[in-house]
Amino acid sequence: MAKDIEADEYATGSDVVEKIERIGSLATLGNWAKEMERSGHKFQHDGRGRRIYSEEDIQILEKMNELLGEKTPLNKLFKQLWEFHLLATRTMKKLKMNRIKLKAIVFQW
Length: 109
What we know:
Blueprint: H1 13-19, H2 26-38, E1 44-45, E2 51-52, H3 55-68, H4 74-108
Antiparallel strand pairs: 1-2
Helix pairs in contact: 3-4
């Protein structure tokens, strides 16, 4: 693992293949990951340059697995997931900002 990454925070490709039904092989996982990267997703890498997977990465892959069962094309599927992820991230940032503003208002009283 990279120096600044805790080993228990990330899964290896083999762990992900074992966990997610439809992936089945490291080659398939690599294809899914490449599609995610084409859409703008960034993975962490271990000291040897191999992708390692965070819990968030695994959740996205599990959702891809679920949607592929509904016969959604991989490139369309990840585009939809990535747009959802960006929306959720923006929403969380807004909530955090609103919480900060609320605290500032409360402290002014």
